[in-house]
Amino acid sequence: METPLDGRGLSRETPSSTLLQELFPEDKAIHRYIDLLAGLGVDRGLIGPREVPRLWSRHVLNCAVIAAAFPHGSSVVDVGSGAGLPGVVLALARPDLRVCLLEPLLRRATFLGEVVADLGLENVEVVRARAEELHAVRTFTVATARAVAPLHRLMEWCWPLVAPGGRMLALKGAAAQDEVVSSRSVLRRFGIGAVVEQWGADVTTPPTTLVRIESLSGPRED
User: Fold this and answer.
1) Who contacts 117 (Cβ-Cβ below 8 Å, separation ≥6)?
2) Domain assignment of residue 171, given as a range
3) Residue 12 belongs to a domain
């Protein structure tokens, strides 16, 4: 039987209140974010209408389950943030994180600014720029990205943004291990290693695939 939908096509089958309380300190904010994605996000072309019925399962929970992978108090850059996935979800799940939503396209950056203001996210900034523009300008404890580019290209953009001793956490699909294998030359050049992990098997199906990338020789020398 199909899941019932509301007037916007948004599934009324939301996660249990217990699960939401486990994942988000303030669950009203994540509900508001879902509303913004299903409304303005669709109107602005950031979310496809067909994705609306699965915003919880495929998008929000998919991002939320990796929140524990980020060290306490980390500075995080979400490269190619788009509609704020995973950056906004991480900021809501982990208020201790300082999140930079990095997005080069004006309409997306504008939407992100409106989301941050609407949700009152004091731990989030929106920067309209390409990742390369921040190379040698800013660094972060963690660089993350979701559905942005093949892994080898993503590392070229993200790894220069990672501070010494930091890491890169890339949300990937079923072909993650194949992407790691095909990225060997980039991994060797940067002196980094990549491990494919599965997160949230008890929350979402399929679980979230995360590629953890860290230096092979400890803290990097700039």
Assistant:
1) none
2) 17-215
3) no
DSSP 148-209: SS-HHHHHHHHGGGEEEEEEEEEEE-TTHHHHHHHTHHHHHHHTEEEEEEEE-TTTSSSPEE
CA distance 35 to 29: 10
Model confidence at 12, pLDDT cuts 50, 70, 90, reads very low
Distance CA 123, CA 88 (A): 10
Cβ distance 76 to 121 under 8 Å? Answer: no
Q: For residue 1, tell me if it sits in a domain.
A: no
CA angle 62, 182, 64 (to 5 degrees): 10
pTM: 0.91
Task: Give the pLDDT confidence of 193-208 residue by residue, as tens digits.
Answer: 999 999 999 999 899 9
For residue 77, the SS3 value is strand
What is d(CA 156, CA 160) in angstroms, rounded to the nearest whole number? 7
